[in-house]
Amino acid sequence: NLILAFESSCDETSVAVIENGETILSNIVATQIKSHQRFGGVVPEVASRHHIEQITECISMALAEAQVTYDELSAVAVTYGPGLVGALLIGVTAAKTVAFAHNLPLIPVNHMAGHIYAARYVKPIEFPALALLVSGGHTELVYLAEPGKFEIIGETRDDAAGEAYDKIGRVLGINYPAGKEVDRLAHLGEDTFDFPRAMDHDDSFDFSFSGLKSAFINTVHHADQIHETLDRNNLAASFQQAVVDVLADKTVRALQAFPDVHQLILAGGVAANQGLRDRLTTELAAFKNVELVKAPIKLCGDNAAMIGAAAYVSYQQQQFGDATLNAEPGLSFAYRA
Ligand code: ATP
Ligand code: MG
Ligand code: FE
User: Fold this and answer.
1) Which residue has the least CA distance to atom 1 on ligand 1?
2) CA of 111 to the centre of ligand 3 (A)
3) Quick one: which residues bind Fe cation (predicted)?
4) How far apart are CA 162 and CA 20, in angstroms?
5) What confidence tens digit (pLDDT) does each residue in 197-248 have?
């Protein structure tokens, strides 16, 4: 089985060739970060234009690197949501074109399911599993009862974790996306500010990061006004400690509430965070029957390999799309618990 997978939901144009849902033959990622940096975030119009310019070259490169021709493909997969509508449309249109020109089945993939399936490249998912999905636009705890079934048991009520990283990073003068650099600074500092850990002790599995973001920004602005200079490393460390504390505490409580879970999957762009990876590794030592599966750091950010892995499950379940497939910018998992 060979799947040609497309991802274009945000600011990465990516095309991959995946064998049997488990081996990456190629995974071309063309990032647009440089074009968006001067605006401090992703500009949708600019993103769409880049996707159009990049996508055919990405297809050629992905097939060439995998040494695969169109005739050998089994299916074409594509992210159809959630994401920026104009950006998604480029991938969806490209995938539909290849599928119908070469008479191949088309597999629509939810971008967030894709993020979870990046963990598939470490080892097969064992169900039931729990996923901590932390990215630029989402922060969710997802229960996976069986392949293809995703149930959100908790999610952020305001900002996503990655969004909070990017916004506080901006205050520290760090370019978008700031997560990786804040993570680096955090390891050089200490938690001296004691920022709020919202909802840490309530009964839900929901999160809130906007209060933390505001507390951080207010602290920095207040210091500016009185011409005081704060230690950037300690600021970063304090912010990161607050984020990691809440993410880890809620995840531990979810694991206690769902004792049938075999694996905890850590996925999404923020899953690359070293503080979070280390903390969960420590916490999971107490759960003898739960295996921690961290998505490979290289596959935490947006890429088409993760889309191909998720698509393979749909292929096995014979769940295909057709020419009416459209971009769904607000796509969510089927239901919330
Ligand atoms: P979504 O997947 O929710 O649609 P997205 O695709 O824009 O959003 P991802 O590509 O999954 O988001 O992740 C990007 C985010 O991950 C950015 O907010 C970035 O700052 C953050 N990030 C990347 N590396 C790290 C890190 N080491 N620590 C914290 N955050 C990080
Ligand atoms: Mg991105
Ligand atoms: Fe993403």
Assistant:
1) 137
2) 7
3) 111, 115, 302
4) 31
5) 999 999 999 999 999 999 999 999 999 999 999 999 999 999 999 999 999 9
